[in-house]
């Protein structure tokens, strides 16, 4: 027999996977806590409460500053647009300051801005938006009943008004509206759906803790229902013409698909901005550089 000591067999340690916040952790080695589902429904409600407050505040300030009777405020679409732009800016500033403190994450991480996807797919997003916008404009002219007069038409009677409206529609509205509806409301509704549909078993609860990813059914649900308030937001500007609002609802569904497909609010914002830009580009070309706007309304 050998005098050498027997070699001990060392059992390999089992690999233990700790819960990782898949959606938001940038360094899993430093954070293995339960998955953070943000923004959730409470965050979305808070965001829209802030937006409503600033919209009401700015509207009242404009009415008081220009001595406009409250019942006649809709007769001054330029001032309404100014108040809306100011409220959008204040809402965004308040959100950028507040929500990172609630999330312990940067604002862009929280809304899944994902600039990397934006850089990689911008040309695909822009091309899709231009095609969508041209298709919607053609179908709207040929098949959708147009109201005789929209409040927004009052802004498009002069070159100055057309340029201001275009600037708002391309630079301001897409950014804030996409953050609101695709950055906050869409993931919040998806999270609420998944929580209500969750299998209340230890395995189901463990999956909930380990991943912040939403199910396909939750994303479909959230795309459908988050698009309703998006369309209604524009109802006043379009004289509550339900045909046009139905088309806008469908456009919102496509914006939501872009957000879900790319995991990027930046991409849906680019699509929204390009969609609006295409509308004003067509108007610019057909009106001789906004100099013959009156001829388009005849």
User: What is the residue-mean pLDDT, rounded to a whole number?
Assistant: 86
Radius of gyration: 25 Å
- End-to-end gap: 110 Å
Structural class: mainly alpha
Describe the biggest sheet?
Answer: none
Quaternary status of these chains?
A: single chain
Q: Indicate the proportion of strand residues.
A: under 5%
Question: Percentage of helical residues?
Answer: 55-70%
Order of helices and strands: HHHHHHHHHH
How many helices? The count is: 10
Choose one word for the global shape: globular
Q: How many extended strands?
A: 0
Uncertain spans:
12-32
Structure description:
- With 298 residues, this protein is mainly α.
- It has a domain at 112-296.
- The termini are far apart.
- It has helices spanning 41-65, 77-103, 107-110, 115-143, 159-196, 202-210, 216-233, 242-262, 265-286, 293-296.
- It has 10 helices and no strands.
- Helices cover 66% and strands 0% of the residues.
List the helices and strands and how they pair.
Layout: H1 41-65, H2 77-103, H3 107-110, H4 115-143, H5 159-196, H6 202-210, H7 216-233, H8 242-262, H9 265-286, H10 293-296
Key descriptive features of the protein:
0% strand; 298 residues; single chain; mainly alpha
Could you write a compact summary of the structure shown?
By secondary structure, the chain is mostly helical.
